[in-house]
Every structure is written in C-alpha cells, then in structure tokens.
Design brief:
Length: 102
C-alpha cells in the first residue's frame, strides 16, 4: 500500500488526461473531471484496462484484474474524475481495495 501524495495525484491526473487526449484524439483542454468517457469522447472499457496496466507498471502495483472488476461492479466509472478517484484508490490499497466496502 502506498500513501497518496499531491505529486502522485498530479501524476495520475496528467497521465489520464494525456492518455484520453491521445487515444480519443481530442484536445486535452476539452477534458475535465465531468467528461463522460464513453458518451463525450468515444472511449471504451479496453482503455480503462490499458490505463490499469500503465499504472501497474509505473507504481509496481500488486493487484489482480478480477479484484478491480469486483470493485468496479459496485463502483462503476463513467467520468474522468471517477476514473482518477478509482485509480488513486487502486494505487493506495492495491488488492485490499475490496476491504473498503466492509
């Protein structure tokens, strides 16, 4: 488990915004925390998996996709802000993320 610093929050935000700007071919300045990934910028669930892999490598995370899937069923992600929040929780809690619901 990692402690989330302001620097980590900024890194995650920058990676997510740059990722969606590149992948969805939109101007980064048009993105905000309320941007709906599917409806507004034609994103998809595979992009979420790609981002998870990026963060797993960057932060050397020990988390299984099925754990993230179980958490996402109860906490669906639609906006960039929700995705950033979930990603920070994954970085902080890794495989213990399911314990947050207890």
């Amino acid at each position: 488990m990692a402690k989330i610093s302001e620097n980590t929050k900024k890194e995650v935000l920058d990676i997510v915004y740059n990722f969606f700007a590149d992948e969805c071919e939109v101007d980064i300045s048009s993105l905000n925390e309320n941007t709906n990934i599917i409806k507004d910028i034609d994103g998809d669930s595979l992009m979420f998996l790609e981002l998870i892999e990026i963060f797993k490598k960057k932060y050397n995370l020990d988390i299984e996709l099925k754990t993230i899937g179980k958490y996402a069923v109860k906490h669906p992600v639609q906006t960039i802000g929700e995705l950033i929040t979930m990603q920070l929780l994954i970085i902080e809690h890794e495989n213990k993320i399911l314990e947050l619901d207890k």
